[in-house]
Amino acid sequence: MYEQRDPTKAGRFAVIATAAWITLTAIDAASSVYTISVLNQFSGGVTPDVMRQARLSDAINLPTSALSGIAFCIAGFAILRWILVTNRNAHGFAQDSGDQMTVSPRWSIGWFFIPFANFYMPFKGVSETWRATINPRDIAAVEVPWALRLWWGLWIVTNFWGNLTFRAWRHTDTTDQLMAAHSLTALNLLIDLPLAIVLIGIIRKLTAMQHAALHTGAFPAPSADGQVPASFDTPIAEHDLPN
């Protein structure tokens, strides 16, 4: 028996934390772009003005990078907490029909930390949660939405990109190497921004659907094409949610 809980607070925390992380990541990317412009000026000679800009760049880079890293950790905690709550709820929805879910609440977050398995199993856990929330009697009848696939694809890409960026930052002995590291940091925003937008949308929709199911007992059974009915495809802010 799984204890069910309204995911509203967990979802709201995850959305706010994700928004804060991507905002600070954008600021960090802008800081890297500024640093690249400063480093480019060194080719024209070292002047007092260039040195002043270099010192300013150093003063900006450290706090923006640190804050972005801290925000990432907080957002990660918030998202994992939300995944745990929603997965537990989904098991509760599906238990009367034999519980067709294969990823337990604990493993829905545990798989994120298992090498190789973390390329697929966390996605499987979230997709099962989504499908069991829509149709707990037959989760196999529910198609995995494109948003979930896009989110997971972007997550894998940003992990590879992050590893590449980390390796670049380990070798910054020359100006060219430093510029390359900052370039990778700045370009990572092109992956993280759509990732954050898609993820926030997923959190809002799934939270709203589970809130409705817990408080009304109504499930958004999919139409013939596997899509969620419009009445359940509503941002969480538009629902009458408890404070």
Summarize the structure.
By secondary structure, this protein is an all-alpha fold.
Structure report:
Helix 2 packs across helix 4 (121-134) and helix 2 (48-94) packs parallel to helix 7 (189-216). It is elongated, with a radius of gyration of 22 Å. It is built from seven helices and no strands. It has helices at residues 8-41, 48-94, 105-110, 121-134, 146-169, 175-187, 189-216.
Structural topology:
Blueprint: H1 8-41, H2 48-94, H3 105-110, H4 121-134, H5 146-169, H6 175-187, H7 189-216
Helix pairs in contact: 1-2, 1-6, 1-7, 2-4, 2-7, 5-6, 5-7
Task: Give structural attributes.
243 residues; 68% helix
Extended strand count: 0
Q: Into which percentage range does the β-strand content fall?
A: under 5%
Count of discrete domains: 1
Whole-number average pLDDT?
Answer: 89
What percent of the residues sit in helical stretches (DSSP H or I)? 55-70%
Question: Whole-Å distance between the termini?
Answer: 27 Å
Overall form? elongated
Assign the structural class, choosing from mainly alpha, mainly beta, alpha/beta, alpha+beta, or little secondary structure.
mainly alpha
| H and E string | HHHHHHH
